[in-house]
Each structure stands twice: as C-alpha cells, then as structure tokens.
Amino acid sequence: MDSKEIQFRGAMGDRLSARLDEADGEPKAYALFAHCFTCSKNLKAVGHITKSLASHGVSTLRFDFTGLGNSEGEFSNTNFSSNIEDLIAAATYMDENLQSPSILVGHSLGGAAVIQAAHQIDSVKAVATIGAPADPVHVKENFSIKLDEIEKTGEATVELAGRPFKIKKQFLDDLEATKMDERVRKLNRALLIMHAPLDKTVGIKNAAHLYKLAKHPKSFISLHEADHLLTDKTYSKYTGRLIAQWSDVYI
User: What pTM, to 2 d.p., does this model score?
Assistant: First the structure.
C-alpha cells in the first residue's frame, strides 16, 4: 500500500494539505475522509482507518480542513459550512485528478459534514459516520464556558485538547443555521452509523437520532468499548475494515 501527499485549493482559496492512501492494484472505489473538530488528517486513528480502507481495496483521501493541520488559512474564519465546501473542493479535485469518490467517511463533526456534503457530490453512493453528532450545534459543548464571551465580544480564545483556538460568533451563527434533520431524511444514499456506547464526548443517543431519521438502506454498528477518538487502534482498524466491507454492495 502506497501513501502520497497531495495539495489542492479549498473553498476559501487556501492550499489544503492531503494524503492519499492507495489500495494495492486497481481500487474497487475511492473514499473521501473528513476528520473531527480541530483535529487533523494525521490523527493516529484517522491513519489507521484510511489505511485499513486502502488495504481492503478502497483508496482514500484524507485532508486537513482550512486553518488546521498543515493546511493554509485562518481557523477563526472557518465554520461548519466552510468545512462542507472544503469537502466539495476535495471531491472536485478527486474527480479531476484521481477518481470521483463513491464513499464519504466522517469522524465526529466530520460525520455531520459528510452527510451535508453528500447532497452536493453526485458520485457518492455510500456515507459512513463515526461518533457523529445528530446536530453540529453539539460542538458548542466543547467550549460552553466561553459562549457568553463570544456572544458579547464577538470572539474568544478557547482551549481544545491543550491547544488555543479563536472561535468567532460567526461560527456559532453558522451552526445554528444548519438544517441537519432534513438533510438526514433526504440523504438518498446508503448510510452506516458507527458509534461507541461508551462515547463520553458525543453520546450514543446521537446515533439513535440519526438512525431514526434516516431512510433505508441504513445500518448501525456498535463500536463496543471504543472511546470517541478511537485511540485503541484495534477499533480504528476495525472501523476501516467494516466500512470497506459494508460499502461493497452499494458501490
């Protein structure tokens, strides 16, 4: 299995950093992966998932959203909508230079983003979410103590996973404007919802809500004792393998 670095222009015109994990031989499909809030494509769990997908015949592109990881841009100017637009830009790059993605995979907030993006990427036939919130507004719980400051002053610096991030009011407004339930109901793609019952960051009730809203074909897989970030590589590799196998009948 080969892995190569790629760059493409994101929705805001910034150069985004990506990595393609390639299947050995002719791939049966291409997938596009969206990482979690303030994470990056280099999170160990992300690499385990995408490499597992590749080892099972699905070449997978993972990238850093604008302002995160090795990508250019200012994180404080981004929001949930710009993440969706970055995904569409990544899919356009794949369409023009590789092969159009038939599978979208998203972790946590990235899971909510791929559900939204799928509506605008015609090639997508299957969507898989991992520990995704039923509503992206859930992400505000990560910096709830700063919400008043953001509302009053327009911005605040919050600490997430030991790193400082500037969050602006426009980020909150964009979350509130997102129509998630309707997009799930009208997804019109195969949907796989993967969630850990013991997830302390995004509770399992989120998976139940998504599943209830979605129309068939839909599936749910419990990630047993995994944590939200899939820090145990047993679960991250397992996740990639299952997505590759589940998607076979849809791609």
Answer: 0.97
